[in-house]
């Protein structure tokens, strides 16, 4: 069971479509389901109409998902319940540190851990981490081992503005949706240990992870809405699909270049070889 979980902050760009395609191919290659989740918890960032545009774009490329679309915002009560349980078990504490206080401390030093603050409008909730290694074997990036308390510190599961943190929601969603294979960008590699730690606390099984190399521009910056990467060109899905298969190093045969996207997909499912991307962290699209 695989999934694609875009944020509805704007249209899909090439980098997000590339992730969608890889997770789709991987699920289909293993005769698995491919689920779609809209990562819409960070409501101030959601753009009007973006969810619909994302769904239409995926359909244009023949990336048809299974079942109903899962909107995170419809599961707020469930996240709150689990937060309350963890709070009751004293895994969480209220943190009142300002952004300014923490500006020069990338690793949270635990200032509020023993302060006993009441959880109110001026506090975020942090999860207590432990001094032990969290380990996993990524299908492409290899063995990863992190000590959370030393490398990240206690981390936020609910922000000061009451928004549920990505790290927290994603673990619950993957479990709810029974995802057992996560294929996503290597920009999330560094936060995977936090998610494993939460899975362990909650008694959830660990999915298998495949972190794809990021598509970067000529300056080495990740393509994203922030860097104003152009929306994926869905007026010519066949040429975009061919480019994506080349970026995924799948070596599509030249005669497929002008074939309909659906036909290219059929070929790509049958020939899917994720290991062509082994140990690569970043790739650049060819210049036209
Ligand atoms: Zn604090």
Q: Could you list some keywords that capture this structure?
A:
288 residues; 12 strands; alpha/beta; Rossmann fold; binds zinc ion
Written account of the structure:
By secondary structure, the chain is an alpha/beta fold. It folds into 2 domains: 2-75 and 178-187 and 209-283, HUPs (Rossmann fold, 3-Layer(aba) Sandwich); 76-169, HUPs (Rossmann fold). Helix content is 31%, strand content 17%. The protein is built from 8 helices and 12 strands. The chain has helices at residues 14-29, 50-60, 76-88, 148-151, 166-176, 192-202, 237-247, 261-271, and strands spanning 2-4, 34-38, 70-71, 92-95, 124-127, 133-138, 142-147, 155-158, 181-185, 208-212, 214-215, 282-283. The strands form 5 sheets. The protein has a 3-stranded parallel β-sheet. Strand 6 and strand 7 (142-147) form a beta hairpin. Helix 1 (14-29) packs across helix 7 and helix 7 runs parallel beside helix 8. The longest helix has 16 residues, at 14-29. It is elongated. The protein starts with a strand and ends in a 5-residue tail after the last strand. The relative contact order is 0.17. The protein binds zinc ion. Zinc ion binds at residues 95-97, 111-112.
Strand content: 15-25%
Count of separate structural domains: 2
CATH architecture of the largest domain: 3-Layer(aba) Sandwich
Question: For this structure, what is the CATH homologous superfamily of the largest domain?
Answer: HUPs
Rg: 20 Å
- According to DSSP, the number of beta strands is 12
Bound molecules: zinc ion
Annotate the secondary structure layout.
Elements: E1 2-4, H1 14-29, E2 34-38, H2 50-60, E3 70-71, H3 76-88, E4 92-95, E5 124-127, E6 133-138, E7 142-147, H4 148-151, E8 155-158, H5 166-176, E9 181-185, H6 192-202, E10 208-212, E11 214-215, H7 237-247, H8 261-271, E12 282-283
Parallel strand pairs: 1-2, 2-3, 9-10, 11-12
Antiparallel strand pairs: 4-5, 5-8, 6-7
Helix pairs in contact: 1-7, 1-8, 5-6, 7-8
The structure holds zinc ion.
